[in-house]
Amino acid sequence: MKAPRVSLEQWRTLQAVVDHGGFAQAAEALHRSQSSISYTVGRMQEQLGVPLLRIEGRKAVLTEAGNMLLRRSRQLVKQASQLEELAQHMEQGWEAEVRLVVDAAYPTALLVQALSAFMPLSRGCRVRLREEVLSGVEEVLLEGATDLAITGLTIAGYLGSELCSVEFIAVSHPQHPLQQLQRELTASDLENHMQVVIRDSGRAQPRDVGWLGAEQRWTVGSLPTAATFVSSGLGFAWLPRHLIERELSAGLLKELPLQQGGSRHPWFSLYANKDKTLGPATQILVDLLKRQAVEP
Fold first, then answer.
1. Mean pLDDT, the chain, as a whole number?
2. Which DSSP symbol is given to 221?
3. Arithmetic mean of pLDDT, 236-252
4. Does domain 8-91 have CATH number 3.10.450.50?
């Protein structure tokens, strides 16, 4: 890559001339001599081979090319300042990135609210969000590949902070044979029909949470896929209510009238990597995730 001929300081000088209305005013604002300001701008024009300013009376006015280049330079200077600020924050212990792994059943709306509140406080810290299912979250945390983890499972050896419960309900298409029985359903009724189960993304010890042991089972890779299958009449499943509100309202899904167990409310908790000290940005995100879970 070709090295730039014009420095950031030169672009800052040109911006000062335009913003303050002239060479003398820019010199005063930058605490430099007027001759050095004039020399800097003149040198820039030589290096670029393009006239940036023209003199009209006693005032320096941007040329068309100067106007375009100045606009682009403002973004360049701003990014450079942000980069320097980020380096300063990192020197003070501020993280460049926070890694967060979340079970796919956790309400996305709560994440969006927390991350939206985090943005203006982040000081350039990025968030790397990863979705897993069931024990997949635990594996990522145990491998040390994340800073924070949200899951509905209890992770042995870790102290989690409860966030909120997520309601899972047993549903099928309104025309499913189970709905045609028109009575309360038992576990034996369900065992004779196809159940749609979400694949655990964990590799070491995957779990079949909610599976009733029926021979008829379809395993899919995501909650949205399961919702699509069930709303198309292909079996029944326990799905998060927040994820299927639209299908319930549209009449594509209907709750199954189970004698018991038709609704489950697992609590989701927030866990932190215990082998890594929480930095200030991570702690801010922790507080926001807790706050949004309590007051969405």
1. 86
2. S
3. 95
4. no
Residue 14's CB is within 10 A of a number of other CB atoms, namely 25
Does 26 have pLDDT greater than 90? no
Is the pLDDT confidence value at 215 over 70? no
pLDDT beyond 60 at 211: no
The alpha carbon of 173 is separated from its chain's Cα centroid by a whole number of angstroms, namely 33
* Residue 12, CA atoms < 13 Å, CB-side half-sphere: 12
CB 44 within 8 A of CB 70: no
Range 225-232 average pLDDT: 94
- Which residues fall within 8 angstroms of residue 32, CB to CB, at 6 or more apart? none
| Max Cα-Cα span within the chain | 94
CATH number of 97-164+267-294: 3.30.450.40, 3.40.1620.10, 3.20.20.140, 3.40.190.10? 3.40.190.10
Average pLDDT over residues 216-245: 92
Residue 82 has pLDDT above 90, yes or no: no
Can you tell me the distance from the alpha carbon of 171 to that of 257, in angstroms, rounded to the nearest whole number? 9
Give the side-chain half-sphere CA count within 13 A for 57. 2
What is the three-state SS of 119-177?
A: HHHCCCCEEEEEEECCHHHHHHHHCCCCCEEEECCCCCCCCCEEEEECCEEEEECCCCH
Whether the CB-CB separation of 155 and 140 falls below 8 Å is answered with no
What pLDDT, in 10s, does the model give residues 103-124?
Answer: 999 999 999 999 999 999 888 8
Give me 66's structure tokens: 């100067």
Tell me if 238 sits within 8 A of 256, measured CB to CB.
no
Q: How far apart are CA 78 and CA 110, in angstroms?
A: 32
Q: Do the domains at 8-91 and 168-264 have one common CATH topology?
A: no
Domain boundaries, the chain: 8-91, 97-164+267-294, 168-264
